[in-house]
Amino acid sequence: MDLDKAIEDAKQLLHGARLWETVQVTNVTYDIYHEFQRVHGVGHVRAMQWIQQGYRTLGEVANNAKLTPPLRMGIDRVHDFEQKIPRDEAEQHETLFRTALARIDPLTTVTVVGSYRRGLADIGDMDFLVTASHVAFNTLSEQIFDRLIPELYRLDYIKGQLATGKGKDKMGRRWLGAAAVPGSGTVWRRVDILLAPPEEYGAALWYFTGSQTLNRGMERLAESKGFVLDNTGLWRLVRDEHGDWKGTLVEGRREERIFKLLDEQWRAPDERNV
């Protein structure tokens, strides 16, 4: 299997998953189900719960359902989050974030991933991937959660939090929320702050750059060669002396080497829009 074939297979699988999700919806039109899934954090289960509770519009949900603050924000800002970010505005986000981070620790590395790294003119979310090789990972996490994020609130950049992994072992690697460049207007943008230790940074770069279809294709390609590939690295599964499966990290630091180990030609980020 080569990568192009794996990408085509991934497209079919993703399409099939969406079809499967659609046929689970009964007794209501798919339009209502799709309307609810526009809200950040709402998946199949919650959308169906709202439908079963008799809600038919987001307005009804907003006025009557018991909502967490993130869900309330997701409904109130659903139109904002659906709007693309022009690249010139995205560059302002990047400058503000880099400047604030540099004041806290100038040796920390940050890359804006996602569609921004893939070179698109209009960006979906602002995804900041952060790492540091000069401090322990828990120190980096403290710098981000306890110093950078409060500073971004102080600068009136961050508007609210949707989810955080702070204090949840390996899930203490991301913060999800909304932000706006001060003076840029009233539209709130989705912002993700993602953390990775240096030994996994290359794999995280690959994974969070996307596209989703390319990622699924490379994951399938890796499986066909006896590996497992995810945002932490390229892993080889072997059985230990007890017969249990155990993962051995083959490569995580260098994005280019992951392609090489899979016998695939390197694809620059702007060649991954498949």
Helix content: 40-55%
**Uncertain residue ranges:** none
Shape: globular
Beta-strand percent range: 15-25%
Mean pLDDT: 89
- Give the total of beta strands: 10
Taking the alpha carbons of the first and last residues, their distance comes to 18 Å
Report Rg.
Answer: 20 Å
Structure class: alpha+beta
Order of strands, main sheet, comes to 2-4-7-6-5
Write the element-wise H/E pattern from the N-terminal end onward. Answer: HHHHHHEHEHEEHEEEHHEEEH
How would you sum up this structure, described in words?
The protein is α+β, with helices and mostly antiparallel strands and 274 residues long. Helices cover 46% and strands 19% of the residues. Strands 2-4-7-6-5 form a five-stranded mixed β-sheet, sandwiched between helices. A three-stranded antiparallel β-sheet has the order 8-9-10. Strands 1-3 form a two-stranded antiparallel sheet. A hairpin with a 2-residue loop joins strand 8 and strand 9. The longest helix has 21 residues. The relative contact order is 0.12. The model has no long low-confidence stretch (mean pLDDT 89).
Brief description of this entry?
The protein is of the alpha+beta class and 274 residues long.
